């Protein structure tokens, strides 16, 4: 019997840290799926510092899919390189859904990719700008819309497909675990997007 956590309004869940093989397999699915659909990706990363792009690049044939990316670890670089308006950073901070959406939209345009993906969050060990450790946002933008989700909620949905998270979920664990799980959540978000983009072998958008 699998015990599924019952999240409080704001809870932390310690998901299993993905292995190298598990991340590579998730990246392989993204690369092969995107390549088959003729779409591309670009990444803007903060806490993962290029790990998402590097993971995608381990897959043979990634050059047909991965256009490029940027690491915007410092807050000010999220504005100068990441395209996030200063007023958004001042109002919402570096770790926020609005920031993730702007990062995803900007990198998509800058790299001329079909899909922009962004990761911004707190890997720890201390909170940042009042944001708790494990709060990570995944932003995606495809030119028609830009969205952002908590990485913890993405992971919950993919780990417990028959359950719906009723709260904001933070990722538990040490820095490396949070960073690797953030990459896993971003790859899952890409697969989710592709599933909506391609239906019955045909592009729907």
Structure description:
With 205 residues, the chain is of the alpha/beta class. It contains seven helices and nine strands. Strands 3-2-4-5-6 form a five-stranded mixed sheet, sandwiched between helices. Helix 1 runs parallel beside helix 7 and helix 6 packs across helix 7 (175-197). It is globular. 47% of the residues are buried.
> What is the overall pLDDT average?
93
What's the gyration radius in Å?
A: 16 Å
Order of helices and strands: EHEHEHHHEEEHEHEE
Taking the sheet with the most strands, its summary is: 5 strands, mixed
Report the sheet-strand fraction: 15-25%
The helix count comes to: 7
Decide which structural class fits the backbone: alpha/beta
Poorly predicted spans: none
The 3D shape can be described as: globular
Total strand count, please? 9
Percent of residues in helices = 40-55%
Strand order of the largest sheet: 3-2-4-5-6
Distance N terminus to C terminus? 40 Å
